[in-house]
């Protein structure tokens, strides 16, 4: 029997987070986003300190991989690189409750939850490890024509504010 080239429960593209304290990050993601820990591989760094060499968590139906920073391999988290270098979006049934849970767990509020012109209700937080997370609920379907019109209006509003 042939082995599936994509492991069960994974997708073709999967995120891998680098954080400065993977033990603490796993605990945070569990509290903030309801993550479930799947796997943890402890190892020691060159100075003999206990770290996480690789771990896997699941948020909803998505697996995320993560590890501690490994400066000797240029594996550094966003806080050491000067801020987020990417962003994640988590969809669920209640963006407001998800955003509040993340902030209560220790995330920094970046953008409050509000209805967006593309049909989602969304807000953004920055986790204690420097990663940006947008928490959203799809509340209405928007046609491509309506999306283009709304984007044009949004651009005009922002241009007026900048002048």
From TrEMBL:
InterPro entries: Glyas_Bleomycin-R_OHBP_Dase, Glyas_Fos-R_dOase_dom, VOC_core
Pfam families according to UniProt: Glyoxalase
SUPFAM superfamilies assigned to the protein according to its UniProt record, in alphabetical order: Glyoxalase/Bleomycin resistance protein/Dihydroxybiphenyl dioxygenase (SSF54593)
Domain VOC: 9-138
Protein name: VOC family protein
Organism from which the protein derives: Agrilutibacter solisilvae
């Amino acid at each position: 029997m042939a082995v599936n080239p994509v492991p069960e429960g994974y997708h073709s593209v999967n995120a891998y987070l680098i954080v400065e304290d993977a033990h603490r990050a796993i605990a945070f993601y569990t509290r903030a986003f309801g993550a479930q820990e799947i796997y943890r591989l402890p190892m020691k760094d060159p100075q003999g300190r206990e770290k996480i060499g690789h771990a896997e968590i699941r948020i909803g139906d998505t697996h995320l991989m993560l590890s501690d920073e490994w400066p000797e391999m240029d594996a550094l988290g966003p806080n050491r690189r000067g801020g987020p270098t990417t962003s994640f979006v988590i969809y669920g049934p209640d963006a407001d409750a998800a955003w509040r849970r993340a902030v209560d767990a220790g995330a920094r509020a970046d953008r409050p939850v509000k209805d967006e012109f593309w049909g989602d209700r969304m807000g953004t937080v920055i986790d204690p490890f420097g990663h940006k997370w947008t928490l959203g609920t799809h509340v209405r379907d928007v046609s491509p024509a309506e999306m283009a019109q709304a984007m044009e209006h949004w651009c005009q509003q922002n241009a007026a504010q900048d002048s």
